Amino acid sequence: MNGARLFVNRRLKWLLALLVGVAAAAILFRKPVQEAVLLGSLLMSDSAPETAFLALADGAKDRFAFLQRIWNTKKIPHRALVATYLKDNAGAHPDLYRRAESLLTSATMDVDASVRELAMATLAQQRYPAMPRLAATLLRDADPQMRLLGVQHLRKQDAALALPLVFHLLDDPDPRVVTTADAALRNWTKQDFKIRVAHANPNAIGTNSSVDPANLKTIQDGVRRWKDWWNSHQQDYSTNRLAVFDQPGPSELLPMADFRLKDLKGKTVRFSDFKGKVVLLNFWTTWCPGCLVEIPDLIELQRKNADRLIILGISLDGQTELDEHGHLAGTHSEEGDHDQGEANGKVDLAEVRAKVEQSVKGNGINYPVLLDPNNEVGRRFNGGELPTNVLIDPQGYARRRFIGGRSVAAFEAMIDELVSRKVPQ
Fold it and tell me: Which residues neighbour 349 within 8 Å (Cβ) at sequence distance 6 or greater?
């Protein structure tokens, strides 16, 4: 009897010890397990919650290894978070910057224009030695906004190095680039030929708004005077060492996953239906002023390039909340009665469709418009920043992503680039 009782007591002790061990292990490993689950969710998701990303980045034993892993997902929202994190932390963590330097240099030619800007700003802050070369590369970019970015960084360099390259932008087809180049030249030379940035309608970025004829004449007269000045001063500038670097290389290819959305008639449209053409995804809403401003340009662009381009206007109507940065916040359901839906933060899909259809007819849109009321596709491209445009090449790779409109000529230059450049097999 005593032996049996002793056996039971031993079993109870072992069981108690096991339970204590399990409890201790749960406490000890709870955080690593939670972090592993959070990381897995972050890597798999189409969008990247900033709060979760920052918690994992700040708590990582090897921050760069974590950032590299997020970067390698090749997802646009994830890369934007990595670029932002490096800009905010490079100065305080020199070792992190040193290890991330090659990632940042490659990011200056990223698909996402916002990532390019962040990478350039970070490298400039850290006084990256090859900064002039990177800025010079942007001067030949098909996107005028990238050329403007190149001038922005080159104007901080020595005139002997940068002036000859910027001078050639006086012949740029975009008046904003011309007037910005003039501002840099004035800063270096102290010559003033009466051109001003305001002459190029800087508040009409991305549209085909014509320059006032009087302003255009002022620009043209100023450019002629600059060229006269150059004839007398060109010998003061040695052969430019940056010239061999001013041709941009191809940006990295980001594969596009297929998606399907409903059009205004309720028909399902798949992205893969358009393979073989350049596709422009235009994320917009009926209540976004900037989105409506660019519609006439998109109509003309589609009309002129119907043989090689399809524009898909993806309406994010139904996403009616904005965060403090002006980005879409929250996802509304399409279910339920309209009155009850408004009380619960929901939007009736029929109402959304009717509103979008009215806008499409009122604006004479000549390209397909699809509905994405739950931001299912938009979140892949940070579509909450409106208007967002994504250019996809005929092979199905995302090649450019930028916020805001562009002129028809700028769009066509980017399309020419995608059509002429063959994707390596």
Answer: 318, 334, 371, 373
Question: How far apart, in whole angstroms, are the C-alpha atoms of residue 161 and residue 154?
Answer: 9
On whether both 247 and 260 belong to a single domain, the answer is no
Domain containing residue 263 = 254-420
With 0-12 CB in 10 A as exposed, 13-18 as middle and 19+ as buried, what is 339?
exposed
Q: Cα(109)–Cα(128) distance, rounded to whole angstroms?
A: 16
The tens place of each residue's pLDDT in the chain, 425 residues long, gives 555 554 445 655 565 555 555 455 445 445 566 667 777 888 888 888 899 999 999 999 999 999 999 999 999 999 999 999 999 999 999 999 999 999 999 999 999 999 999 999 999 999 999 999 999 999 999 999 999 999 999 999 999 889 999 999 999 999 999 999 999 999 999 999 999 999 997 655 555 567 889 999 999 999 999 999 999 999 888 766 665 454 555 567 898 999 999 999 999 999 999 989 999 999 999 999 999 999 999 999 999 999 999 999 999 998 755 444 445 554 433 333 333 344 345 668 899 999 999 999 999 999 999 999 999 999 999 867 899 999 999 999 999 999 999 999 999 999 999 998 665 55
Q: Mark whether 350 and 414 lie in a shared domain.
A: yes
Q: Indicate which CATH number applies to the domain containing 342.
A: 3.40.30.10
First-to-last CA distance in the chain? 80
Helix residue ranges, H only, 253-407: 289-304, 338-343, 349-363
- Angle between helical axes of 76-89 and 113-125 (0-180°, round to 10): 20
**Count of helices and strands (H, E) across the chain:** 15, 8
Q: What are 238's two structure tokens? A: 């040695």
State pTM to two decimals.
0.84
